[in-house]
Amino acid sequence: MKLPAKKLVISSIVAASFVVLPQIGGHHSSAKAAAINTNQVLHYGESDSSVKALQDKLQDLNYYKSTIDGIYGNQTRSAVRSFQGDNNLAVDGIAGPNTLGKLFSAKVSTQKVSNDVTLTTNLKYGDRGQAVKDLQSTLNNLGYHAGTVDGIFGSTTLNAVKSFQKAQGLQSDGIVGPNTRAALAAPKTTSTPKKTNSNVNAIIADAKALIGVPYVYGGTTTKGFDCSGFTQYVFAENGISLPRTAAAQWNGGTKVNSPSKGDLVFFATVNNGPSHVGIYLGNNQFINASSSHGVTISDMNNSYWKPRYLGARSYN
Q: In the chain, fewer beta carbons within 10 Å around the N or the C end?
């Protein structure tokens, strides 16, 4: 007599609220899938397998285009911020439960797979593509600092758009709609926005108020600064967004032949390129976060700084 075939029963318990498996498709393989706890909080500076899974998912949606290394650095934070902006989340660069839940859900938007936006599309914070590059080039040419022409509508580009809109008598909302596009094509004035004494004085006052704060490598708070963390902090206090590193601040600013008060001054202290930055005070003095003295005022003409001086950049 023929015996009935035995049934193999496999049971599994999936804690869906706790672990989500990234969807696999396109160029990804099953070996690339990784579990992630969507109830955790991932932020800048972390390094583990959860960050790697985060990068993998962001790359799958074309937000993250760097190496998947499991290190939550600037590019990962930028990708998270872009995703948050596109999905009506708080744009803070922190991958918390809301962001992770949205990112790893089946309903997540995949608009970024096609990055380029047309010139007739409203451009806003978080957008990417050739249209954003064109916008950045135009703003830079008009004297409104939009940062590096990288096609990423970040905070620096946003501030430039708002400044341009204000100068043109438009609603300063940072969104490049029909009125702003028309103004960019035929601006009322092409002159470079002028520094105001009040803005420069505020920057210098805020910088001097931090004299004595210790130097901390990688520091970006009043507990301790490195050189670019100090300049970034002071300018942010005055509504101006700077890149994070001295080299990026050098590349992003508007070149000036000689510094004015409130400009950034750069020095080559390690190699030939910019590795140190401070804020020019006038009379050949600048304030900076020195590795030996913390936040202090230095003389550009002394024997150490003078031969290392590279030039100045304006962000005002």
A: N
Q: Which residues contact 276 (CB under 8 A, 6 or more apart)?
A: 227, 246, 266, 267, 268, 269, 288, 308
Q: Does residue 288 carry a catalytic annotation? A: yes
Higher-confidence residue of 95 and 117: namely: 95
Is 227 labeled as catalytic in the residue annotation? yes
Among the listed residues 288, 301, 302, 316, the single catalytic one is 288
Tell me what the pLDDT averaged over the chain comes to.
Answer: 79
Confidence of residue 261 (pLDDT cuts 50, 70, 90): very high
Question: What Rg do the C-alpha atoms of the chain give, in angstroms?
Answer: 24
Per-residue confidence (pLDDT) for residue 195, from 0 to 100: 55
Half-sphere exposure of 284 (CA within 13 A, CB side): 7
Domains and CATH numbers, the chain: 19-112 (1.10.101.10), 130-185 (1.10.101.10), 197-314 (3.90.1720.10)
Pairing, β 309-314 against β 294-299? unpaired
Who's near 201: CB < 8 A, 6+ residues apart? none
Instruction: For residue 276, indicate whether it is catalytic.
Output: yes
